[in-house]
Every structure is written in structure tokens, then in C-alpha cells.
Amino acid sequence: MAASLQPACLDLHFAGKHPPPLKHTNATFLRCVSSPNFPEPDSPDANLTKDQRKVVRIAWEKIVRWSRSLRAKAKTDVLERTRKVVVLGGGSFGTAMAAHVAGRKEGLEVNMLVRDSFVCESINKNHHNCKYFPEHKLPENVIATTDAKAALLDADYCLHAVPVQFSSLFLEGISDYVDPGLPFISLSKGLELNTLRMMSQIIPTALKNPRQPFVALSGPSFALELMNNLPTAMVVASKDKKLANAVQQLLASSYLRINTSSDVTGVEIAGALKNVLAIAAGIVDGMQLGNNSMAALVSQGCSEIRWLATKMGAKPTTITGLSGTGDIMLTCFVNLSRNRTVGVRLGSGETLDEILSSMNQVAEGVATAGAVIALAQKYNVKLPVLTAVAKIIDNELTPTKAVLELMSLPQVNFKIPSTCMVFI
Where exactly are the structural domains of the chain? Predict the structure, then answer.
């Protein structure tokens, strides 16, 4: 029975010789690739194109009607009530989000708290961030300041865009000016090296307020594309459903789609670990190991991230969703990624010191790699690819040696426990 389902042309044998040229190529091809139930080209049932198009058109119209009905019911009261938003940090992503929020409503005051007085002057006088986006004009309602008290005064929302490794010290320094009810929206991705803490733990600790409202914003998003108003989708995660919905209202626009989640751990840990995996992907590219290697490595890395994240309490659906797999794909495969760039240069033979000294932005994956391994030991999960990245960064392993070791791991052809070490 099974043999009869095979296309007839697959059963032909030519004893090592090339098959004779096919006649009536189109009809022969259709019969070859089709199943027995597929209509012959000249049969009445073959002309189903109009009906199929009608089905597709009706399905699409249903989706559009559903979308429009929900948009008509969408609340806008959060944006209407918001008068001031503060952005902590003047880097590329903080700037892009400041510009985006400022464009959401005329008259909305967006304050950027920056360290560099030259950048501050550039934003206020010329409406450009001269360091990161010299060619992009910022909305006139974006105001920069170096005064934390003035920036935070009467703010309705706070977007935290300071790199993870500097966040604790920075927040401790401004804690006196932070209202205990001010919602913090974290844009920072990574793990604190010595404490292994995520931003959801760093912010309330540094501010000495365990009840500080917190939201994690993550997903596949390059600052440059946000500045160019290109379609983007991200996730806001909070244990407070009402707060997540409010931030969704604040940020969502015609070119920025915002999904909500209650899985803060999953969103944060995926955002941190994907930076380490991106370094590995860059190394593969820098060594010119090919597409097969890249696919194998990223697949393995996705498995490792899922193993550790679920051990920490994350939902598997978060890891396979927008803030997990979506962010991994962007960071591992696109040249705009800082972490991937670090990997490419490591794979090409440059030293880490040479690479970091030439960069004007922070590649969070470099610091996060060591913290990830410490977390893996804490939760008893073995992570071959991410561990190899940490050892390369610590100059204890060369990229070439790492590839040989990973390819020499035991071959596996059975279902593996989540804590096993395996290179798929």
C-alpha cells in the first residue's frame, strides 16, 4: 500500500546511466510530484483556482474585520493622561525610544537624562544625538538634561536604558529623586556579572523599593530601524497585567506592535542569553565555517537557552516566541548586531581588547557570558555552546579549538533530558 503512494518516476532505475530526456515536460513533472489524489492537469477538478482564491480572500477579510473591531475598542486613556516620560541613558536604543515616545503625542514632554554634556547640548540645540544618530532629527519635545532631579520630577513613566553592568551604581545615585510609584520600563538586556541578577531584581534593590513598578521591554529591534519608523514588534512583560496593558497603550503605534506577557523571567533571560549566542554566531561567520555550521550552532544555542530558562521558571512558549526566537534570529543573523560583530571579529583573529577598545557602544554579551555559566552551574544545566563563548572571551580557548571540541561531543540519536550536554 505504501509503495503505491510513491510517484511513479521515483521507482525508475537506470543502472547508473542518465535517464532519457523527458517529453511533455510539464505534464510529466506534474504527474511525478503529485499524489494519486491530485487531479490530472486536464481533469475538471484541476480548475479549482477561483474557489481557492475565494477561500483565501474570505479568510483575509475576516482577519481584517477582526483587527479593525479590536482597534475600534482599544483604549487610549493612558496616552491621553501621560504628560511626561523620562529616559535614563543617551545611547542608541534609549534615543530611539525617546524619539518614538515623543512622536506618540504632541505636547508630551520626553526628558533624556544623559551623562555627556556635549550630547546634551547637541540634542537641545540641534535636535540630534551627535554621538549615535547625527543624521536623524529628534522631535522638538525631546529634551536632554544632566540633572537627575529635574529629569525625574513629575514623570509618569521611566524608560531605563543604562547598560546592565552600570545600572546598580547609577540607580543608587538617583534613588532620592525616584517616586516610589514611578513605573520603570527596562530596555536593558543582560545579567549582572557578580550577582547574576536581572533588571527586575537590580532596579528594586538599587532603589531600595521592592514594590517599584516594573516592566521588561524586549524583542527583535534595532535602534536604527526604530529611528527610521520601520515595522517592528516587541513584548512588554510584567507581573502586573494592568501595568503591562498601560505600557502597551503608551508605546504601540502604526509601526511598533507591542504584545504583553506575564513571564518576566522568560523575557529577561531570553534577552540576556541571546547576546551570548550572537557572539557564537559571529564567530562561525568570522571563521567562514558556512551555513550548515551556522544553522547547527544556532539551533543548539536555542535549545540551551530553553533548557536554562525553563529551569529558572520561564514558559517554553516565551522562549519560542517573539522575545526569544525572534530576538535570537535578529541578533544572530544581522550585521547591525553589536554582539554578532564582536563574534565576527573574534572569529577573524582579533583579540577581545582590540575589539572593545574600538567600539563606542556596549556589547552586553561579553559581560553576560560569564554570568550565564554561573547560572547554568547553579541550576545544573550544561551549555556547550554558551560555555565555549565564555571561555573564548576569557582567552582560555581559541575559536578553532572550540569548534573541534564541540564537534567531538558524543553523537546522540535518542530523546535527551533537558540537562544533558549535546551538540545537535
Answer: 76-262, 273-408
